[in-house]
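Components:
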Amino acid sequence: MPTPEAMTAAVHAYVAAFDRADPSAVRDLFAANATVEDPVGSPPHVGHDAIYGFYAKSMETGAKLHLEGPVRIAGNSAAFAFSVKLAINDSPMQIDVIDVFEFNDAGKVVSMRAYFGPGNFSQGAAPHA
Amino acid sequence: MPTPEAMTAAVHAYVAAFDRADPSAVRDLFAANATVEDPVGSPPHVGHDAIYGFYAKSMETGAKLHLEGPVRIAGNSAAFAFSVKLAINDSPMQIDVIDVFEFNDAGKVVSMRAYFGPGNFSQGAAPHA
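Structure:
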């Protein structure tokens, strides 16, 4: 199992890579056969190529991630709350999300699950308590 | 599947019941054969009696839960970030946690997983960004 520090660092690397629109760096955080279910309940993206494509498309929106509170680490998993800020037709939009990563012993993400739904979209970028 | 509103209400009912130290009300949010894995990686508490016992004991610490940010809803699941504030030997302590609830069609929680680890304990009650 990777150390808590390594899992926390992987989450920070994920956010940084997303925010500089670097889908290769995001893909390289995942195991070759990893699954990305974003949002939970939708068909998963499976494997490096599908994961790269999903993130490349997501980054084209110009969305940026903002961590909210500390990364939670338990067993081989990390959970973290964040907001996604983007503009749709020049209107600022925020999506509140919680992601859960599961890691393998090599420190790669084998499963990513993103929790958000229609009620987590809001106009503007008002801070939450 | 329960509505997003019903799942969000269940999370708020859970926090309120915990904070008034009412383990019966917490238990009644769960299905009879539900599992509680708190923290993730530890042996789960299975079924109403075990869940009641676990929460009754947790509440004896005087711990109180404080939601941080909105409840995230995806599919049949709710994820939410919160802090636990308690005192150990009169010293204030905070634990930062993310819980994930999965619901059945009757709106009862069938699986609860709590994400936190040693790195999520801090002295005092300093607010997080």
